[in-house]
Write a structure and sequence with these properties.
Blueprint (H helix, E strand, L loop, with lengths): L3 E2 L1 H4 L6 E4 L3 E2 L2 H11 L4 H4 L1 H7 L9 H6 L1 H8 L2 E2 L2 E14 L8 E14 L3 E12 L7 E11 L9
Parallel strand pairs: 1-4
Antiparallel strand pairs: 2-6, 3-6, 5-8, 6-7, 7-8
Length: 162
């Protein structure tokens, strides 16, 4: 996939895998920082000794919302930029499922398939991605989601056939 695409290309990419991100290591420092940012200090995330003793995970696991929040970095890492884009807006999620806990120290990556693209008004296109966050050496993914974003552009750049 090229690093840059045109608005004219978007509709033709529906159903295509647009990118697979690099691996991101989810270490204890990242988990602790996320716990501080969200005030979620549950022992399963921040106390390795207790988590090893009292859970079946053998140690701490990442917050599900930490894994979800990594989608922004994964997106930036691998998805092509739309040449005419002036601004990208996170519109939300239709569905998020946390499938497998991410053990601290694991590596994760995102896999993005364009599920839908709709032009809205004269200057926006809404894209919906089917996203899977894979855990290295695990059969089941960490999460699956349908993520919607808005791409804002100058109305003069809107393709005529949309």
């Amino acid at each position: 996939m090229p690093r840059e695409i045109s608005l004219c290309d978007i509709k033709g990419l529906v159903g295509s895998e647009l990118g697979v991100s690099a691996w991101f290591t989810v270490d204890q420092s990242m988990v602790d920082s996320f716990a501080d940012a969200t005030n979620d200090h549950q022992f399963i995330h921040v106390d390795p000794e207790r988590a090893a003793a009292e859970t079946s995970y053998g140690g701490t696991i990442a917050h599900g919302f930490l894994t979800l929040s990594l989608l922004s970095a994964m997106n930036f890492d691998c998805l092509p930029r739309v040449r005419e884009q002036q601004m990208g807006i996170n519109y939300g999620f239709e569905k998020v499922r946390f499938m497998t806990p991410v053990k601290t120290g694991s590596r994760v990556r995102g896999r993005f398939t364009m599920a839908e693209a709709r032009f809205r008004g004269p200057s926006m296109v809404m894209t919906t991605y089917a996203v899977t966050v894979e855990i290295e050496n695990e059969r089941k993914p960490a999460l699956t989601a349908r993520w919607m974003t808005l791409i804002q552009f100058d109305p003069k750049d809107r393709p005529s056939e949309t």
